Amino acid sequence: MSHRIATGDDREIATYLEIAQYAEARHPDADTEQPPARDLIVVIDFGSQYSLLIARRIRELNVYCEVVPATMPWHEIQRLRPKGFIFSGGPASVYEPDAPMAPAEVYEAGVPILGICYGMQLLAHQLGGAVENSSFREYGHSVLHRAATIADPLLEDLPPTMPVWMSHGDHVTTPPAGFQTLAFTDNSPIAAMANDSGYYGIQFHPEVVHTPNGKQLLENFLFRVCKCEPTWTAANFVEATVAHIREQVGDGHAICALSGGVDSAVAAALVHRAIGDRLTCIFVNNGLLRKDEPERLRETFERNLHMNLIVSESTDRFLERLEGITDPETKRKTIGEEFIWVFEEEAGKLGEVDFLVQGTTYPDVIESLTADNTASAVIKTHHNVGGLPEEMRLELVEPLRYLFKDEVRAVGSELGLPEEIVWRQPFPGPGLAIRILGEVTREGLHTLREADAIVNEEIRNANLTRELWQSFAVLTASRTVGVQGDFRTYGNVIAIRAVTSEDAMTADWARLPYDLLARISSRIANEAPNVNRVVYDITSKPPGTIEWE
Fold first, then answer.
1. Helices 234-249 and 262-275: crossing angle, nearest 10°?
2. Active site residue: 3, 205, 382, 383, which one?
């Protein structure tokens, strides 16, 4: 191409997450391998809050998608062999000295590009156009008008006028040479632009629900512009992942860290399909589980799914390690380390074992500071990604590492797992330890188990389980004065948390019916020991997290 490309070559290049074949953990020798041929879109993240949402929308259209940072070295991006790029939005202005830039090689790759918001401005800036600060910023709803005389595959079958969602303070004032304006709004004369090379810029956000026709626009980009095939399905994922697990494990043996949740269950089922009885599932009863959890898990995996299952009764061991610990990060890392030691000890009893299977998912990776993601801020350390000891000798198999929760459930259904497993609410690896604020004690665990069981029973009786992402109780560090019977009490405070979410990256507090909250509160105060007050958490994520610790 003849365009002058503005680059960020003098900026620090940070490493990012490993490139996996589809979504599973890589073979140890994968640095020299090429991923299998399939249609793939790469989202280059420039710091947008919607980057992961873009990836979700692409995958919902059955096309595989990876999110990578703008700082990722080009050779790592190139080995993915994408059929198209999407530039995300971002908080920066392209004319700022430290604004993130797209690699110059992207423009030489010969594949289509869709720039969204900041991504559109970056296209204009790097290809010789002009971007300026707008005197009138657009945040929220706007009306897009298509240019009447221009027909283009990106906007095909879309109405001439449609509502869109804007969120920008800068705008393109002069498009690069060879670009034409496809659409405009009252405040953005160039709200969509394109050239003959398949480069598109749109100032609005098609990935959010506030742009009703956004899904059709993304479909047009995937199938009419990039010529992708919708092959990213649960069935295809299972087939490809099982084949890769067989290649990675070879004739070896593996153990799986079962937690009782859907993620580890689906990971176990995938590996079991790949290597059969050479997988042994290890369930550690660490004393930090929900009421009756160990009995339910044994029933499901040993008797119904016919997997090799070892139950390690380790309650005393974990509680001794947690004695005196109040810091939540220390709790997580302590529990994560102890899990690994238990697994390795159990593995030693089995003979030669080389692999540890875990149910790590994409939100776990994004929210944890790991070797795969050095640029992300630590929100919390997940025991299955950030708490592993460096000297661990087992090689990890993480077949769900780049899947969202709805994709995990789809894979679970494809594998034939029982509905009670597939639709079980997420449960943190450190268990109830991070739902007890302060030190974890046997008395506190008993109180929390009873309260949590009441929450789950009432939510289930109200037929709200599938409508909620999570619902649970938290034993706070507060004590309050109460009156129970004819006596003054000084008891514990239980907080109830119920949220709705698509993938745990963001969440909103659930508007539970008042009569349901009243029943939960009354039962906890009467049935859970040493509790005299119940509160309801109405904090969304952000600013809070779903878990309290």
1. 60
2. 205
- Amino acid identity, position 470: Q
Residues near 117 by Cβ (< 8 Å), separated by ≥ 6? 48, 88, 89, 90, 167, 168, 202, 203, 204, 205
- Please indicate whether residue 256 is annotated as part of the active site: no
Report pLDDT digits (tens) over 393-445.
778 899 998 788 889 999 999 998 888 788 888 888 899 999 999 999 999 99
User: Whole-angstrom Cα distance, residue 270 to residue 408?
Assistant: 11
Residue 296: its H or E element: helix 293-298
Q: Are 252 and 278 in contact (CB under 8 A)?
A: yes
d(CA 144, CA 118): 18
User: What is the dihedral sign for C-alpha 174, 176, 177, 183?
Assistant: negative
CA–CA distance, 490 with 493 (Å, rounded to integer): 10
Contact call for residues 11 and 71 (beta carbons, < 8 A): yes
* Residue 380, pLDDT above cutoff 80: no
- The one catalytic residue in 24, 138, 207, 458 is 207
CB atoms within 10 A of CB 112: 24
- Tracing tokens 């399909």 back to the chain, one arrives at 273
Going along 286-325, which residue ranges are E strands? Answer: 308-313
**pLDDT tens-place string over residues 99-111:** 999 999 999 999 9
Contact 238, 411 (CB under 8 A): yes
* Long-range contacts (CB closer than 8 Å, 24 or more residues apart) made by 2-6: 3/107, 3/126, 3/127, 3/128, 3/176, 3/177, 4/127, 4/128, 5/104, 5/107, 5/126, 5/127, 6/101, 6/125, 6/126
Report the distance separating Cα 430 and Cα 250, nearest Å.
31
Angle at 211 between CA 206 and CA 213, to 5 degrees: 80
45 strand-pairing partners:
69
- Distance (Å, rounded) from C-alpha 443 to C-alpha 417? 35
For residue 53, give every residue at least 6 positions away whose Cβ sits within 8 Å of its Cβ, in sequence order, or none: 207, 208, 505
Told to judge if 168 belongs to the known catalytic residues of this protein, a careful annotator would answer no
CA 385 – CA 358 distance, rounded (Å):
9
Catalytic hit among 65, 117, 228, 256: 117
Q: How far apart are CA 310 and CA 293, in angstroms?
A: 15
Confidence of residue 24 (pLDDT cuts 50, 70, 90): very low
- Give buried/exposed letters for 179-206 (b at 16+ CB in 10 A, else e): bebbbbbebbebbbbbbebbbbbbbbbb
Q: Has 281 been annotated as catalytic?
A: no
Q: Are 434 and 332 in contact (CB under 8 A)?
A: yes
Between strands 487-500 and 508-509, the pairing is: antiparallel
Amino acid present at 48: S
